[in-house]
Design brief:
single chain; 334 residues; alpha+beta; Phosphorylase Kinase, domain 1; Transferase(Phosphotransferase), domain 1; 2 domains; five-stranded antiparallel beta sheet; three-stranded antiparallel beta sheet; 11 helices; globular; ATP-binding; transferase; kinase; Serine/threonine-protein kinase PknD
Length: 334
């Protein structure tokens, strides 16, 4: 709650550097490469979220470079569907950190899990139409990122945040790839081809795409040759085989999210990672409308899903905008 008492105050008397400008630092989550804290920004007078590296990696060179990449890419993709980054800094104790908006709500995976367990109240709040709208909003954010030359590479319900007021945010750009960058951190690499200009917007918020992308392209390349990035059940076939990828890989992952959002079932999950990869590369799942008849999924939805998750990139939607158009038409028909 904003009140006069927390806006009409003086700034701290002394200069504060690094994380010293934040108080009430409390750990709220841990991830693969870092720790997330909530904190109070004494300068702006607001609660924020702060991400830092794990203690053992805070002063390790390659880990710092990767973390800086994540922070800067996240900061440069300014869109209603991303989390605003307020500051990137280097603290004597915690190392590199970045502060961002603290969001409320829950991830989409938690919503789908409750529906899958038969929670009727959740289903009332998130009927089929609303679940498709959430995936569509995520696709809009991805479309914007693609226009900047950025591929997310880890699109999944756990990274889709549904806010308390209906806002939809795509999180975790830590594995994002920029078109035209080499894959590896040494001289033994090949370059991801740049997609034709007709597949991306010429302008984003009246700022030339090539100008914005240039700043992201300046960041160092950090992906090791033998590392698969992404979550196995949402990877595209080209990610699994470690081939060059473009925005159609995100389209594949978004298609899996769409399938799961509608059918409340994962299309490709196997007994283990190997079987899951085999399913993704070789098996066609049951249509969502047949997999979960209780949700009255229209046949048109099946067609959209299968085009998005086609095994060959050339058989998929050529751009995220094309997928969005079909999803908007589908929503209007429900």
């Amino acid at each position: 709650m904003i009140t006069l008492s927390n806006t009409d105050v003086r700034l701290p008397f002394k200069d504060l550097h690094g994380l010293a400008k934040y108080s009430e630092l409390n750990e709220i989550a841990r991830g693969g490469n870092g720790i997330l804290y909530s904190a109070f920004d004494q300068i702006a007078g607001r609660m924020v979220a702060i991400k830092t590296l794990w203690p053992g990696y805070r002063f390790e060179r390659s880990a710092r470079r990767r973390f800086l990449r994540e922070a800067r890419v996240t900061a440069q993709i300014e869109h209603p569907g991303t989390v605003p980054v307020y500051e990137i800094g280097d603290d004597n104790e915690f190392g590199i950190y970045y502060a961002m908006k603290r969001i409320s709500g829950e991830n989409f995976h938690a919503v789908l899990r409750r529906i899958g367990k038969g929670d009727h109240e959740t289903l009332e709040v998130f009927p089929l139409r609303r679940r498709i709208e959430i995936v569509t909003s995520t696709c809009r954010t991805l479309s914007f990122a693609h226009a900047l030359g950025v591929i997310h590479r880890d699109v999944k319900p756990e990274n889709i945040w549904v806010g308390n007021f209906g806002e939809v945010t795509l999180l975790d750009w830590g594995t994002a790839k920029v078109w035209g960058e080499p894959n590896f951190d040494d001289g033994r690499h090949h370059t991801t081809p740049v997609r034709p200009q007709h597949s991306i917007s010429a302008q984003v918020n009246n700022v030339a795409v090539d100008h914005i992308s240039k700043h992201i392209d300046d960041l160092p390349t950090l992906t090791p040759a033998d590392q698969l990035l992404g979550t196995p059940t949402y990877m595209s076939p080209e990610q699994i085989s470690n081939r060059d990828i473009d925005e159609r890989s995100d389209i594949f992952s978004a298609g899996i999210c769409l399938y799961e959002a509608m059918a409340v079932a994962e299309p490709f999950r196997g007994k283990n990672r190997e079987e899951t990869f085999e399913n993704i590369c070789s098996r066609r799942p049951a249509p969502p409308s047949e997999r979960s008849t209780q949700f009255s999924i229209p046949r048109r939805a099946d067609e959209i899903v299968f085009k998005a998750i086609a095994k060959q990139p050339s058989a998929r939607y050529d751009s995220m905008n094309q997928l969005i158009e079909d999803l908007e038409e589908l929503i209007q028909s429900l």
